[in-house]
Amino acid sequence: MSYAELQVTTHFSFLRGASSAQELFETAKQLGIDAIGVVDRNSLAGIVRALEASRATGLRLVVGCRLDLADGMSVLVYPMDRAAYSRLTRLITLGKSRGGKNNCILHWDDIVAYAEGMIGILVPDLPDATCAAQLRKMAELFGDRAYVSLCLRRRPNDQLRLHEISNMATRFKVRTVVTNDVLFHEPGRRQLQDIVTCIRHNTTIDDVGFERERHADRYLKPPEEMARLFPRYAQALARTLEIVRRCKFSLEELTYQYPEEAIVPGKDAQGSLEHYVWECAPDRYPEGLPPDVLKTVRHELDLIRTMKYAPYFLTVFSIVRFARSQGILCQGRGSAANSAVCYILGITSIDPSTNDLLFERFVSQERDEPPDIDVDFEHERREEVIQWIYKTYTKDKAALCATVTRYRAKGAIRDVGKALGLPEDVIKALSSGMWSWSEEVPDRNIRELNLNPNARRLALTLKLAQQLMGAPRHLGQHPGGFVLTHDRLDDLVPIEPATMKDRQIIEWDKDDVEALKFMKVDVLALGMLTCMAKAFDLIREHKGEDLDLSTIEQEDAATYAMIRKADTLGTFQIESRAQMAMLPRLKPHTFYDLVVQVAIVRPGPIQGDMVHPYLRRREGKEPVEYPTPELEAVLGKTLGVPLFQESAMRVAMVCAGFTGGEADQLRKSMATFKFTGGVSRFKDKLVSGMVKNGYSPEFAEKTFSQLEGFGSYGFPESHAASFALIAYASNYIKCHYPDVFCAALLNSQPMGFYAPAQIVGDAIKHDVEVRPVCVNRSRWDCTLERIGGSDRHAVRLGFRQVKGLAVGDAARIVAARMNNPFASVDDMWRRSSVPTEALVQLAEADAFLPSLKLERRDALWAIKALRDEPLPLFAAAAEREATAIAEQQEPEVALRQMTDGHNVIEDYSHIGLTLRQHPVAFLREDLSARNIISCAEAMNARDGRWAYTAGLVLVRQKPGSAKGVMFITIEDETGPANIVVWPTLFEKRRRIVLGSSMMAINGRIQREGEVVHLVAQQLFDLSGDLVGLADRDTEFRLPAGRGDEFAHGGAGPDSRDRPKPVVPRDMFVPDLHIETLKVKSRNFH
Q1: If you write DSSP's letter for every residue of 754-787 in order, what string do you get?
Q2: What is the CA radius of gyration of the chain?
Q3: What EC number is given for this enzyme (predicted)?
């Protein structure tokens, strides 16, 4: 008995199916099913995953889609050939364009227009008049390609229903075919399928009613079982294979063609590329190309010609050239930085004459994969670049890739708990107590939350949430991965409008695009480039110097001295706890040291046991030995330790005889978490190859174990070098222009590792004067104000720091005071015409104090006294009345002013930082009475001493490579302290670690060189101590920077969050941006 299941819904139908394509195909193969027809609803988002599952199992995939029509019908359609597939993708695109994001609106007339070459299967519910009318339409449109589904619904008289549908089909000459409407791969997934139905309908399992499936039969069944269930319909069963034979189309037929680019008149794409390379070469090498670089360039151009990649390079060159013409800072990174051509064209910044690059890491003839050039742009101005791409290539041929937003632990707990009807406080307690999830959640963790792990619904929530983790919830848009095509893009893949205006996305993500070998241009956003651009502007305006990334002084001793002290808060890449701990040990003196620093604090080198050998050799504590000169040539710069992907590739090629293609396969297996463990299959070849070439078996095994560590994460040297350039530039600015760096960093938020409070605190420690938000002196961005007659500048906090203040209201305030500063609250209100809500926000931020000398409460009282102007009709009468009767002056009210502690809490609440005393300073007397010392004292204590300290919790990190160790940074008025929490203590005090705003730690000091940690033995929650500061029962929450993984839910956005729309402050529109308003300087200084 042979059978193909033609109606399979995967979890890419988004909260309809409960199983992945991989699970469905593997199960189908075990059951002896011949083929699978994937028909997700109104979407092809999961079809490439189905293709990969098909490749892995050898089971035939029939490409299809279920179209739910607005006028009532549901039709399964299957393209029979390539042309029909394009009609299907255009049809879905049409429906998405009408329905908007995550919706598809199609009618029968649309099917009529696009049905040529497709097989159609009607999915009726009842054999009634509606079904008859639909069958008539199917027969007229599809002819011999029309079928009707026979599917058990498990209702009373089910066999009679099938009989009547079959008779009706015979009457209209439409053939029957058996389907099973599969929603999950095995019976055990029934509960999860019910839960995703509840989530989709925003209801609970108790109230979902008949929206859920009425029976548990929606799983894959073997052919014999299907024959038993449909004994009277042998022909309908056989027609499943008939449809498989008729549907000859395969996704493997999709041929991608990149758009033709020939910018130079009279030359093709390759000629244009070579023209620009030789034209741009003098900009990079004024004295002529060095012989080795010239040889490299010719080799690269030959390979680009062979692989026909010239149009792709021209596209990226055009994008970068446009950005620079608009003054937008940009820089290429990733494996593209291995290319001399990219360097000469200005796409990347890594000079091949001074860096030993490996072009095969970027483009390889053996690999036959499209190149991937990532270019970072200022995050506030990237939208200009994106819209230029749409305008240049048209929306018919350009769209962003999708990203698949998947369930993670917290989102899965919340949605499943809600569907099972758990109380909101229980759901909140469960989700807030989750850091990450392995195989199971220990009962002790549940009991710590005062919950009963044996409660049925609670246990079921945890079980089903774990099954839901990793399932797609909805499509988002890729940060900037563009797919460009020669012909219409919707001939290849459906396109839908993005949530953000003037953007559109395809239904496939970057992995799908790579699987089909499409070329992708990555237009990415980098906050530090925005910071650098703003810093260079401030330096030009206030310091009279013209700097950019290329003209910054190289190898500056003062900058490296600052880096060696780990004084890198706010800078790029080397600001995290782990990086700061490594800097005093690695002691960078040169740019290449910085490249190593960027790459070494990664899971790959750590798990490969490369960090400690490298540091010991660098410090002279361990000899550097190379068994052969060939290995010294490869690993000389990294002291015999293969820190980079390129190093691993070269070791495999030089020492073990790998070809370039095999070395690249090794690299691919090290490249990303998807291939964890994939390096191991190269072990025999690598070890035997090295032994054959004269290396000892022990050395070969050790080399392999180091490379295997890359299974989690390996860093390309070219990528590290690109990031090191920006890291050095940001540190140079911080070292020589700390005032500029502080202002530029604040003006580029949100970005980076730390919150504004830590950025400002660090600037003050560097002798930068920081001035408060002021209604008469602040602009939207933070600005610099000259200090007296000196050449020093203070940082004036901008209106952007005021929570809730709209950029439009800030613009009106700045424009209104151009000629004269505001004299009072009333004067400001009348001249600026901003709503009183904006005035309240400024008053709560204490912005009336610096120039109008109004404390918070006084300013709020003055705002309450504001009166609207009288209507013109009554103005004259009001004036006569005013002359006849002396105006009653409102008596002055002496308000009790806030305490200093209360003001500090209000500062954090409304501008995210304070320029007053640190909150912990107000508690110092009480803390000292409890023998709690300051953070500075603790960090200066000798090795092994016990210390008891406390502070506000700034950062909590639990790196995957740290084997469960939690790293916490706390801060008091004397500075930060670094805390280490071992897994056993973390599990015992999970609630304190994850929930405290202020924490006390008793532990032992651990010193390693200049790196100091307090290893916690006891933890105490002191969050309650902060409540008294505000003279009220208010919870104090320190605004968290992005480095606090707990406060921000770990890596990536919450799985339930929709992509956020762009707000004005995230975009730069030259004609409207507030910073382009020319305001007389006397009003600011």
Answers
A1: S-HHHHHHHHHHTT--EE---TTT--SS-EEEE-
A2: 33
A3: 2.7.7.7
Identify the pLDDT of residue 154. Answer: 80
Angle between helix 310-325 and 269-284 (nearest 10): 50
- Report whether 802 contacts 847 (CB < 8 A): yes
Strands 966-972 and 975-981: antiparallel
Report the domain count for the chain: 6
pLDDT of 1068 over the 60 cut: no
Other C-beta atoms within 10 Å of 263: how many?
A: 15
| Structural contact between residues 33 and 8, judged by C-beta atoms closer than 8 angstroms | no
CB neighbourhood size of 427 (10 A) = 19
How big is the CA angle at 799 (ends 798 and 805), to the nearest 5 degrees?
160
Same domain, 488 and 469: no
Map tokens 């079921």 to a residue. 460
Pairing of strands 504-509, 783-786: unpaired
- CA nearest to 866, candidates 815, 822, 827: 827
Q: Which residues pair with 330 in a beta bridge?
A: 377
For residue 106, give both structure tokens: 């199609």
Name the one residue in this structure whose structure tokens are 């005090």: 989
- Give the span between the Cα atoms of 39 and 1003, in whole angstroms: 59
Describe the chain by its helix, strand, coil percentages, rounded to 5.
Answer: 50, 15, 40
Residues 492 and 371 in one domain: yes
User: Parallel, antiparallel, or unpaired: how do β-strands 472-484 and 520-526 relate?
Assistant: antiparallel
Assess whether 353 and 376 both reside in one domain: yes
- Tell me if the pTM is above 0.70: yes
Q: Residue 371 pLDDT > 80, yes or no?
A: no
Over residues 369-379, the mean pLDDT reads 83
CA distances from 705 to 623, 633, 644, 677, 1034 (A): 20, 21, 14, 12, 54
- Per the structure, the complete domain to which residue 285 belongs is given by 269-398+476-527
The CA distance from 1019 to 659, in Å, is 55
Q: What is the DSSP letter of 185?
A: S
- Considering the domain architecture, whether residues 106 and 21 belong to the same structural domain is answered as yes
Tell me what percent of the residues of the chain surpass a pLDDT of 90. Answer: 41
User: Can you tell me the distance from the alpha carbon of 622 to that of 617, in angstroms, rounded to the nearest whole number?
Assistant: 5
**Using CA atoms, how far apart are residues 412 and 431, in angstroms rounded to an integer?**
9
Q: Which residues of 641-665 are buried (b: 16+ CB within 10 A; e: fewer)?
A: bbbbbbbbbbbbbbbbebebebbbb
Please tell me whether the peptide bond between 697 and the residue prior to it is cis, using omega within 30 degrees of 0. no
Same domain, 238 and 359: no
Q: Are residues 149 and 236 in the same domain?
A: yes
Residue 243 CA to residue 669 CA, distance in Å, equals 39
Residue 1064, pLDDT above cutoff 70: no
CB–CB of 814/779 below 8 Å? yes
